[in-house]
Write a structure and sequence with these properties.
With 417 residues, the protein is an alpha/beta fold. Helices cover 41% and strands 25% of the residues. β13 (276-280), α12 (286-292) and β14 (301-306) form a beta-alpha-beta unit.
């Protein structure tokens, strides 16, 4: 079964908003064995939409469209659906009742005609009930292709995909199994990892595919298998993961898509009943944001001081001015003092600190562009490492974030039996 995802909206084409809907839909369909044929972004133009429908007709089994279902004049998807399917709009009473309850009951305001028009749907469509919004989804089939229209608002789209589309596709279509296993590695680049596992990769059977998904300081290795026998696919994937673990165990930090390094260190901190704080300069709070993005992080993450300015390091963190004067703000000594002082301030077991020159200009700072000092205060010592992550600025910050988490992970996993 093949599917195409179409996002509609001029705001996407001009870069005003980023399309996150396609990624969510693709991942959701992939989990139930639907192959994504392509993703397309098109304008809010009736003819452009019609041309896209014609192009996709009978080329794929399923077309999922997001966007253009709002109540304003620039939202043309619903009327275009009617033209393509030679249908007409009618009022769906169940949708009208829901919209009325939402506007008058929840938002406490009088419903307008524009709100009521959200209940207009093609007469022959299967209405997908949108419990969390006013625009319903629409499911219509023409010849061998099903076209599904969803609102572009992400949380409404996600509700409809999870509660309406996925159950309906599972029930009505016979699909192969697609099994994925993602191995998370940190600390080595793509080429080095590839060299280490070359023989292992060459031994993979034809129905198992390996993909390298690199990012600064980390590489995800995704194994994918497709077939009719789910048990056999899982058995094969698991056996190759075990053999891979024997080769690169030193850089593997997890085996699941959702087990990022911040999730892994969070689980271990929670298990060991340890806490952590951060003092950040060049990373500007990125480490704190990463740690606190994990649900339940309050059990181990106590807080952060983003001491971006030198005076903040002195006034809030209590770094002696003469220490900064004697060693420079970008130095091992200052990084160490930041880690120790925030650890004391927050009364934690661990503390991470960063200070560096991310660029893009060197200014009056002595440190070279890309220089970063990372300090990790543990219950027993302070570890300070110096790096040069080069340029551009975004690369420096991202790599400093990853390296900080990697240092933390390495330290707390020392106590794992």
């Amino acid at each position: 079964m093949k599917a195409t995802i179409v996002t509609i909206g001029d705001e996407i084409l001009i870069g005003q908003i980023i399309d996150t809907n396609s990624g969510f839909i693709a991942k959701s369909l992939d989990k139930i064995g639907v192959e994504i044929h392509e993703m397309i972004s098109i304008s809010d133009d009736k003819q452009h939409i019609l041309d896209t429908f014609v192009k996709l007709q009978n080329k794929v089994d399923l077309v999922i469209i997001t966007g253009g279902l709002g109540p304003t004049k620039d939202d043309v998807t619903k009327k275009t659906f009617c033209d393509y399917f030679e249908d007409e709009l009618i009022v769906d009473q169940a949708v009208l009742k829901h919209v009325t309850q939402l506007i008058e009951g929840f938002y406490k305001r009088t419903i307008t005609q524009i709100n009521k028009d959200q209940a207009l749907v093609p007469s022959r469509c299967t209405v997908l009930h949108n419990q969390v919004g006013t625009a319903p989804g629409m499911w219509m089939k023409k010849e061998n292709t099903v076209f599904v229209s969803l609102p572009g608002v992400p949380f409404e789209m996600k509700y409809l995909v999870e509660n309406e589309i996925i159950p309906k596709v599972v029930k009505e279509y016979d699909r192969p199994y697609i099994i994925h296993k993602t191995i998370l590695t940190y600390g080595q680049g793509e080429s080095m990892v590839a060299e280490r596992i070359e023989d292992w990769e060459n031994s993979l059977p034809e129905f198992v595919k390996l993909a390298y998904l690199p990012a600064p300081g980390r590489v995800r290795l995704r194994l994918s298998a497709r077939g009719k026998d789910k048990e056999e696919l899982e058995k094969t994937i698991d056996s190759y993961v075990v053999s891979l673990d024997a080769i690169i165990n030193d850089i593997i930090v997890g085996f699941e898509e959702d087990e990022t390094i911040e999730v892994l260190v969070g689980k271990m901190l929670k298990k060991q009943q340890k806490t952590i704080a951060t003092a950040e300069s060049c990373t500007g709070g990125q480490i704190a944001a990463s740690l606190s993005s994990v649900a339940g992080a309050s059990a181990y993450f106590k807080g952060s001081v983003v001491s971006y300015a030198t005076e903040t390091k002195v006034a809030v963190l209590g770094i002696p001015a003469d220490l900064i004067e004697g060693h420079s703000v970008v130095s091992a000594e200052v990084a160490k003092a930041m880690a120790l002082n925030v650890k004391k301030l927050m009364n934690t077991d661990y503390a991470l600190a960063t200070t560096g020159n991310a660029g893009p200009t060197k200014g009056d700072e002595k440190a070279e562009l890309g220089s970063v000092f990372i300090a990790l205060a543990t219950p027993n010592e302070v570890i300070v490492e110096e790096f040069n992550f080069g340029q551009p600025r975004e690369k420096v910050i991202d790599r400093a974030l990853i390296k900080s988490l990697e240092m933390l992970k390495k330290e707390i996993f020392k106590n794992v039996l």
